[in-house]
Amino acid sequence: MKWAALGLVAVGGVIGLAVAGATTTVVEKTGTNEFCLACHEMSWPQETYTQQAHYKNASGVRAPCITCHVDSHPWTDYLWGKATAGAKDVWGHFTGKLSTREEYDARREEMSEQVWAYLERTDSETCRTCHDEAAMALEKQSQAAQFAHPQAQAANLTCISCHKGIGHGPVGDQTSAEASHRPANEMADLADGLTDVLGSEK
């Protein structure tokens, strides 16, 4: 009886490890850009993504789609985020909501607004997966950035408040500042200061 119980525990342990390994592999494989691009709708945002700094930059560090679109901490949030985002994308694919480039372009601003609202609401949590304000070496940044970051923190702005075009470029004719949802006077004060700094750099 004792050996039978031990055998069951051993078999259960092996099965558990196999399930955990399979789950980890599935989660990893379904989090790649290649997997996202399996649906043709993703080829259009891919075009703008490859033109931005998160795709190609001086340091050679690339942020894949999932890093910006799904919060990775804690693990439970990551799994839930992947599941809900994936279900939404699959539903959109099979219902043909974005079956043409024209439909994508027509809804791009609306979809961007949804992502920006999420990042505003969560204090840009996915940005902070890689970026840490406390680790910023301001002295190594441009004069404009050295001025803007402390001012933005003092004004309670979050990353996406000023960096709306960082992932896929500006939407339509909007710039990051013009598209901001923050009070106009906060952005105006910041813009005035930036204008002075940028003017001094010329």
Q: How would you portray this structure in words?
A:
The protein is mainly α. The chain has one domain (18-201). It is built from 9 helices and no strands. The protein has helices at residues 2-29, 33-36, 43-49, 65-69, 75-95, 101-121, 143-154, 159-162, 184-201. Helix 7 packs antiparallel against helix 9 (184-201). The protein is globular. Residues 179-186 have low confidence and may be disordered. Keywords: Cell membrane, Electron transport, Heme, Iron, Membrane, Metal-binding, Signal, Transmembrane, Transmembrane helix, Transport. Heme 4 binds at residues 159, 162-163. Residues 1-20 form the signal peptide. Its main location: membrane. This is Cytochrome c-type protein.
List the SSEs and their pairings.
Layout: H1 2-29, H2 33-36, H3 43-49, H4 65-69, H5 75-95, H6 101-121, H7 143-154, H8 159-162, H9 184-201
Helix pairs in contact: 7-9
Structure classification: mainly alpha
Low-pLDDT runs: 179-186
In percent terms, what proportion of residues is strand?
under 5%
Q: Mind telling me the C-alpha Rg? A: 22 Å
> How many structural units, i.e. domains?
1
What is the residue-averaged pLDDT? Answer: 82
